[in-house]
Amino acid sequence: MNTSATQEQSQSEPIQAQTCIIIHPGSKNLRIGRASDVNPHTILHAIARPRRPKGPLHRDPVLIPTVVLSKENKLQVDETYQSMRGTLQSCLRSDGTPRPATSTQQVALANKQCTPIQGSVSKLQFVTKSDVEDYVIGDQVLYAHSDDQFNVHFPFRHGDLNIHSGVGGSLSSILADLETIWGHCITNLLEIPKTELKHYRAVLVIPDIYNRLFLKELVGLLLIQLGFGGCFLVQDHVAATFGAGLGAACVVDLGDQKTSVSCVEDALSQRATRIRLDYGGSDITQAFYYLLQRAGFPYKECQPQHPLDSALLTRIKEGYCHLNLDFCGLRDVNFVVERPGVATLRYHIKIGDELLLAPLGLFNTEVFALTGQDKRGQGQANASGDPEDPHDANYLRETSRRAHKEALENQSTSTASMDPIDNSTNAGGQGEEDLVVDSLAADAAPDDLPQQQLLYSLDQAILHSIERCSSDEMKRRMYSCILLVGGGAKFEGLSTWLHNRLLLQIPFQFRPEQTEIIVGPKEMDPSMVAWKGAAIMSCLESAQELWIRPTEWKKIGVRLLRERAPFYW
Questions:
Q1: What letters, b where the CB count within 10 A reaches 16 and e where it falls short, cover 92-111?
Q2: One GO molecular function term (predicted)?
Q3: Over the stretch 347-396, which tens digit does the pLDDT of each residue have?
Q4: CB 532 within 8 A of CB 524
Q5: Domain spans of the chain?
Q6: Nearest partner of 236 among 275, 209, 273, 271, judged by Cα
Q7: Fold of the domain spanning 71-124+281-371
Q8: What would the DSSP string read from start to end of 134-185?
Q9: What is the pLDDT of residue 414?
């Protein structure tokens, strides 16, 4: 009796931000920290394990790899870039003067005489098998020596669990990797012993388009394997609106390997509006390298598949690429190539419109054929049955169909008794059985899946998402407030470029008085907005009913998610 009373009292107490851990896993980076922290710890979301002698080898790349293009596809990519150069040449600067464009030949000529400045020998060292007992985590994975044949795993790819047929690609292996990575970060970065986690609670930020089986396993990982005293899940788009302080917005998340769009109102992501596209910052980096090669990039030994060169190209892209039309002509770009045990090389090169053409791929997605053709829109999949949940979607669908059928039969019987001469109504009632509308299936089946044959550009994805809102008034609200989050939203001038593209396409009847595109609300890093929103949400009094505790999870299981998840299960 006293024990239950103590539990009820502890459940009603306000959550302390210091005892709440926010975990936001991504395809490339992991953001983790206490809810009371100003900013989370950000590390490479990867793990390297020494390969067993004569065992299979698997190395997930840091960048999405390029594919070999056919002549037709290569010609289409080059023609698209040529068209984009023509568009830039016809643009005006903010003061109304023509914008001078640069050509590939001009940039190549400027870099022809470039020679690197050699520095001292790097003090960095590769990580070898002898240096580790079991695993390497985070940024150290970049230095996992390839000759020692580490297996490198990224648990998330394209915003979902990285299930594949190779070694370490099973669900149980990925969950074991996540337990190791998250547990290592909690112990070493947050300095919380694993034995103390029963006194802490966790908030897991999940993708807006989710797999129910994976979520069930992740909750079990947090509560059972890691041993947290409680947890709840929140969709990244909903968390982003909390972080930005918005009640309603069309949220666009530009990640490393996926771009997702959905409309959020009153802390609910509208299911029919969710779209995920399998391109992001990694594709922009590969497109940037493609352009650099054509412009005489002097670092000829660059190999994008090498982890250190992948990180170098990403730094150059993040530091110099932009969409500001006032920046024109040849720009100075400096970078240092540093490899363990080798003298550093300092490059001073010139780059022109390639700095704009790379991020412009978001609006001309044909160029992303460089990293593969299959990047089409995806929506929320239909709910699959779960043997642990007797009231799953299949049960609700069957019972709703049966109840609808019984209602029709009762209606036809009463009509027949009132008018026994006319039996046509009764016959019609029997025929109605074939026309029963399955509301759940209709809600989830074709309407939740974007047109699979289309590869949306960023502006097209936003328009398509908002068009699937349930009312005209909601469409106007969404067009009036668009929130850009994620690491891919950091390009200077992106919001202005997107604003101009949308103004030309918003239907007249839905045009708001003002369309506001928000990037970095409250001077926040766009990649941390969702994490910050989850931290805010965890401390709200209204969120206390969302917490799931280990004893409840062991007893009730996945059914708790149907009752307590702050989204449609």
A1: eeeeeeebebbebebbbebb
A2: ATP binding
A3: 999 999 999 999 999 999 999 999 987 776 777 776 666 777 776 666 66
A4: yes
A5: 71-124+281-371
A6: 209
A7: Actin; Chain A, domain 4 (3.90.640)
A8: S-EEGGGGGGB-GGGTEEEE-SEETTEE---SSTT-SHHHHHHHHHHHHHHH
A9: 61
